[in-house]
Amino acid sequence: MSTEIFGIEDVNVWVDGLIRVLLIVGFMTVVVMGLIYGERKILARFQQRLGPTRTGPIGLLQSVADALKLVGKEDLRPRNADPWTFELAPYLVFIPVFLGFVIVPFVLDWQIRILELGLLYFVAVSGVNIVGWIMAGWGSDNRYAMIGGMRAAAQGISYELPLVLSLLAVAMVVEVPAPVIDGAASVASDSEYVRGSLNLNEIVAAQHEVPNLVWQPLVMIVFIIAALAELNRTPFDIPVGESEVVGGPFVEYSGIRWSMFFLAEYAALLIMALVFAAVFLGGWAWPFGIWMDDAPPRWAQALAVAAKAGAFIFLVFWIRASVPRLRIDQLMSFSWKVLLPLMLVQVLVNGLVLVYDWPLIILTVVGLAGVVALAAIVDRAVRHPRPRPAVAAQLQGEAAS
Amino acid sequence: MVVDAPTPSEAGDFETQDLLINVGPQHPSTHGVFRMVLEIDGEVVKDLVPYIGYLHRGAEKLCENFDFRQGIGYMDRTEYLAAHNAELSYVMAVEALAEIEVPERAQWIRMILCELNRISSHFMFLGAFGVDVGVFGTPFIYAWREREAVIDLFEEISGDRMMYAYFRPGGLAWEVPVNFEERVREVLASSRQGVKDFDGLLTENEIFIARTKNVGVISAEDAIEIGMSGPSLRASGVPLDLRKTEPYMYYDQLEFEPITAEGGDVFDRYLVRLKEISQSIDLIEQCLERLEAGPIMAEKMPRMLRLPEGEAYMRTEAPRGEYGIYMVSKGGNKPHRVKVRSACLSNLQALKQMSVGQYVADAIIILGSIDIVLSEVDR
């Protein structure tokens, strides 16, 4: 078995695999360190601080110093912790995140593997790490950790659905060249294009002229919300809420295991940003008609992807600096009662567009109406809160008597 | 030890137990060394047991062993976020016992400093509360910036950033710096901007409103019964403000109305404090207009204060509520008994009633909204 990498043909599959794995892990670790530094600097600016300045020029080596410190720390395990669960949990959080990088299109044709079902693969592996969170929460023999783990499970499952539906909605209607089978165009033989693809490269290529955010404004917003929840970032950082559960499932971890969770968290942020850039912002394509006729050079593609992913990451940091945390019941009802119905309606509309081959502009109109509806629902929920459930009142009565 | 009772599986039915979690005294959001044990069912608090006393230093007892002026230092330490207000009650009690007339200028400066301290204390609340609600650091730093401006001013005046010991029986320790007025105005301008920042950051934030409205509600009747005071009481709609209802110093010459809210929930307790900052800014400006040159210490103060026999209870409106000092003197240079009436301790009694039936995350912000200072609770 042999394959091709870097233009060198006839490379052993195992050597090829090893090279690709090392590339992902190396690249990711460096980028994640940069992200951590970036987050500290950006948050510091939001908060009128300077952030790290002392380690290396303008504090650039701060993440390296932190990593070295974490590696040097003692790897503690509480006496009553479940040893297997406790020690395996970081891997189950860490590995799925890195598996997700397999399909990410950094630059045209530069990715680990081009999978036909790339998006499906992505949502599948990104859901696995919840198991690791629950294991960490359960295995630590700590009640804060357990509550955090349960919260992570509830939240992860609840927001997986809007996330998957939002990706599905895009994948349904994206226009891709009709596949050529045995020399003859298959399904829609009278048209050059068919709709629907799960291949990220094709999705990006389809946005050569107009990015999906124009066609799918509501879907994009729901994706951002669900992605924040999947990543456990503010305002959905309920599982790790510092002021409530003191770090949640990670409370008992130290040293290298803790840093694996940390690394996985930022790696997940990066991959979500790259997928966002690919699915909604058009990946490596340049906006406003630049390099419209031919593919931009590789450096320009990389720049475009970095800028688009960077915008998403900056948005996440910005949100972190400015909004409070939701409560667990609000979080759950927001997902099940607001996001999920909206996305189901959107998927229905997309299905109609897919079947009857309507123009995509209908989606824009529906999407904008959906955005207005979302804002109205949130506003109404905030201005006219429902009274507390009867059980709360009853408990309060008991306590008072 | 042999246990004869059947295990749940033998008895055929399992008993579902509620989970007990211990919050504090090292928990990041118990504001010091407060500890509470929550009995939770899922995420709902079913019972709450507060434990206090981790910071008990015997400040009241210690005061019995020191002369009247030395006791001021201990009062600073009971209420370290609003030390001027704590000192004020103490020196007023001493002055009432000794029947000392405090000169006018000293009174006005005391009022200015107490109101400034109210601003710094409320900003501290806003910052800590923002962190409780879950914003990563931003409100804390915003609040810290404004508090820092006030504290810098205090440092210029008294030489210390937290434990001022600047009020003395009979007046003030020394004259304020020559640029006092302009420095105060500078600080006020910055605080006014700080209030605007908080309005933008939290007050109108949808998530913040969703988290705090209708949470931890306490009715006016319950609040009065528990003995709450200060902003926590006024948030329930009771216009009790000692500055207005029984004016001390020259508060009767100032124009203001106690700030109240209707709901008695966490959001109202937040909003009342935010508005009180603006009110204090306004009060300080009125004070500055009336500030005139003059002596800052009563005449003929003895080197060693010896008080006649008697007792006095002086209470003032501190940032957290009624801060009272009950002092008994049996002659001599030391008090026979000093009792601190702590607003935080009384307000804390409402915690259980407000938290039961709410979510765990609510219990945290309810505790934050009471705005306790543990060294005042435990003394």
Strand numbers in spatial order across the main sheet of chain A: 1-2
Strand content of chain A: under 5%
What's the alpha carbon Rg of chain A, rounded to whole Å?
A: 23 Å
Derived from helix and strand composition plus strand pairing, the structural class of chain A reads mainly alpha
Number of helices of chain B: 16
**Major β-sheet profile of chain B:** 3 strands, antiparallel
The largest sheet of chain B has its strands arranged as 1-2-3
Distance between the termini of chain B: 43 Å
User: What general form of chain A does the structure show?
Assistant: globular
- CATH hierarchy, class of chain B: Mainly Alpha
For the biggest sheet of chain A, the summary is: 2 strands, antiparallel
Shape of chain B: globular
Low-confidence stretches of chain B: none
* Helix run count of chain A: 15
User: What oligomeric state is this?
Assistant: heterodimer
Q: What is the average per-residue confidence, as pLDDT of chain A, rounded to a whole number?
A: 82
> What is the total number of structural domains of chain B?
1
Summarize the structure.
The complex is a heterodimer of chains A (401) and B (379). With 401 residues, chain A is mainly alpha-helical. Chain A contains 15 helices and 6 strands.
